Amino acid sequence: MASEIVVTLPLPPKELAPNSRPHWASKARAVKRYREYAWACAMEEISVIDGFKPWREAACTARFFFATKRRRDRDNLLASLKAAFDGLADARVVLDDSGISHRVEIGEPDPAFPRVEITVRGIE
User: What is the largest CA-CA distance in the chain?
Assistant: First the structure.
């Protein structure tokens, strides 16, 4: 059985940044879209694993690849991924998102393909 999956998502929309002040409706739309996209990507990853069972606890590493090299606040990056972690829980990668421990890394700039890669490792 697989003990790790990798879900690749686009960078979170600016409405999900904790310091942004969008209208509540535009933020709600952004949360819904990002959560559903994370769910769909996670479902695609676990669908190829025979007999996948959700993990009770998991360690997640979110590696961000931005178009430019600039200093980033890792706490804010993690907060902007809340909808993605909820999507992983919706896909039953983990039983619920309270069992996820988080780590944020920043990769080398990739102007051609800015993204976030979330590696989820089950803790047995």
Answer: 44
